[in-house]
Amino acid sequence: xxxxxxxxxxxxxxxxxxxxxxxxxxxxxxxxxxxxxxxxxxxxxxxxxxxxxxxxxxxxxxxxxxxxxxxxxxxxxxxxxxxxxxxxxxxxxxxxxxxxxxxxxxxxxxxxxxxxxxxxxxxxxxxxxxxxxxxxxxxxxxxxxxxxxxxxxxxxxxxxxxxxxxxxxxxxxxxxxxxxxxxxxxxxxxxxxxxxxxxxxxxxxxxxxxxxxxxxxxxxxxxxxxxxxxxxxxxxxxxxxxxxxxxxxxxxxxxxxxxxxxxxxxxxxxxxxxxxxxxxxxx
Length: 283
Prior knowledge:
It is built from eleven helices and eleven strands. It is an alpha/beta fold. The longest helix is centred in the middle third of the chain and has 19 residues. Pfam families: ECH_1. InterPro entries: ClpP/crotonase-like_dom_sf, Ech1-like, Enoyl-CoA_hydra/iso, Enoyl-CoA_hydra_C.
């Protein structure tokens, strides 16, 4: 990849993609006025990340909002279509298929082989929590206000928050409190519970800059090692220690044969920064 690589062809009507630095993709949510999600928006988000997953030149991704005042207000309830009437069983099967498709779109950040760093600011309500919970690293501007809003509209969050947030946060009591009440919580509370790893003073520009700095650092590392690390961390989350150790042994039996390992050793011997080639095949 060169300095001139352009990912703009991956953009859609509501999701914009650019490459602010080598090997880094910046994905921006851009549906005014408040980034409220309707089905075309969340479908496009999933498609964009699946396309990024097939780009062997990418090494890290930053997800942010293009809107200066907020990350996302969550679901656009005026655009939701929920089956009404008809036989309950058939309606349930239809709705189940819809929810599974929705979940699959938001899980695209998690299944992306590259680290995804999300930068939030302003308002980050409802579906925002589902989205950021599917990302690998979460940064928050100091002005962000979060909320797990689903309980306020008569449903349990079903797109990922309740599945992932208890595995992310160290304070399960607070997870329950926030999910039961739907109350707003601050960047400081989010950091305290472990939802975000860093609070950046300021708003959109400051938190996006910090996320891009982290992405640039990750992009300097071996792409084979980073992709493997993400894969193994996700496996560890969902399996026992013994299962993960055995799986890691099998994984690294192949991955230790990478040229990146030799390049890193040679660079260290010469006291130079290693340079790694891009992943040449699609993942």
